[in-house]
Amino acid sequence: MTNHGSETQCCSKFDPDPWHEKEITWQDKLFIKGTMMQFMHMPLPGAFAKTVGRMWKGLEDVKAAPDIKDFIMLATESSPWKGEVYINATKEVPDAENVKLSGTYITRVFDGPYNAVPKWIKEMAEYVALKGKIVKKYYFYYTTCPKCARTYGHNYVVAFAEV
């Protein structure tokens, strides 16, 4: 499950097929975690880019950044005022919050604007319920930045439902 190729020198072109309607199990998958301020579920202007930039620099400084083909960045929130970002790492990063995620996740790929997330959450809840499972927590993998999404003509987002 990787991204392949980059026409933009920024975000790789995303292949949704390996991620759509899959069940993934992770055991101690290593990520670094960052937080950002948000207002009513929306990151404050520049907060997302600043948080990700700081995290990415920390990964690169200690050579813990994943190959672009293995890159995963998950976003979730702990409240309407605080967002969380997780970027996978190849080793622990000093001075960062290192987090290991374990569990089973059901995924589904969506294509559309970020403000469709509430609709996608509803669709995911219905999809997971059809599988006889209950969602514990949602994460979202925003596969490209807005500029690259416009270039590629798709804004793919992978919803992860921890079950």
What does the model show?
By secondary structure, the protein is α+β, with helices and mostly antiparallel strands. It has a single domain (17-162), classed as Multidrug-efflux Transporter 1 Regulator Bmrr, Chain A. Helix content is 22%, strand content 37%. It has helices spanning 47-61, 117-130, 146-152, and strands at 23-39, 42-43, 73-79, 82-88, 97-111, 137-142, 156-162. It has a 6-stranded antiparallel beta barrel. A hairpin with a 2-residue loop joins strand 1 (23-39) and strand 2. It is globular and about 45 Å long.
Order of helices and strands: EEHEEEHEHE
Q: CATH H level: which superfamily?
A: Regulatory factor, effector binding domain
Quick one: CATH class? Answer: Alpha Beta
Beta-strand fraction estimate? 35-45%
Give a short overview:
By secondary structure, the chain is of the alpha+beta class.
Kindly list the characteristics that best describe this protein.
163 residues, alpha+beta, Multidrug-efflux Transporter 1 Regulator Bmrr, Chain A, 6-stranded antiparallel barrel
What layout of secondary structure does this protein have?
Elements: E1 23-39, E2 42-43, H1 47-61, E3 73-79, E4 82-88, E5 97-111, H2 117-130, E6 137-142, H3 146-152, E7 156-162
Antiparallel strand pairs: 1-2, 1-4, 1-5, 3-4, 3-6, 5-7, 6-7
